[in-house]
Amino acid sequence: MGDRLRLAVGVMGNAASLLLYAAPILTFSRVIRKKGTEGFSCIPYIIALLNCLLYTWYGLPIVSYRWENFPVVTINGLGILLEFSFILIYIWFASGRDKMKVAATLIPVILVFSITAIISGFLFHDHHHRKVFVGSVALVASVAMYGSPLVVVKQVIQTKSIEFMPFYLSFFSFIASSLWMAYGLLSHDLFLASPNLVGSPLGILQLVLYCKYRKRGIIEEPNKWDLEQNEEKSKQLQLVINNDANGKS
Length: 249
Prior knowledge:
The protein is mainly α. Helices cover 80% and strands 0% of the residues.
């Protein structure tokens, strides 16, 4: 019964995490459409990539015992593909300066994962010590991933606008964190449960801020067509004024 419940929670956690990882698709569709990153940061996606790499490694039979954490492997493996795709799109459309920032962050992330995988694979010879080592590194990365939205939270409070904090991203973050926290507790695995003890309250905080500031609406940029129409009307008005002044003279 316990194993079935744990598996059911893991499957629901996979579904919620899939929606969470897929949420930025709308953002990057806009990037492709406008052919520019509009100045937003790629760091949260790079941290998420590190988190997915570490937890995929953590769930594999090399670290975990057989396939006891198979749901962790499946969702984080898919997360690697999605996050890596988002980062590539960002690099393609980013300015030269932003590309350098991405490289300066991405290279250390790849090194951290590679060193963690090598040390755990060759220096430790049993599952327990491998889990403790990889889990500790993954715990830090996961807390950093869940903590990265605090930058957006600060921006929402300062601007009193929810433009940079989509509802579904906050909602799925809360659901996914809560489900994985339950999965970790049912598995008696603190390395899976602990990060979500941070992620779940942060998800609640984002939802509270969304409810508080949603009535203020989203700050929208002026429509280009409207600007052109207003400019044309101004020219016509100026022409009428000039003609009227010439007639009076």
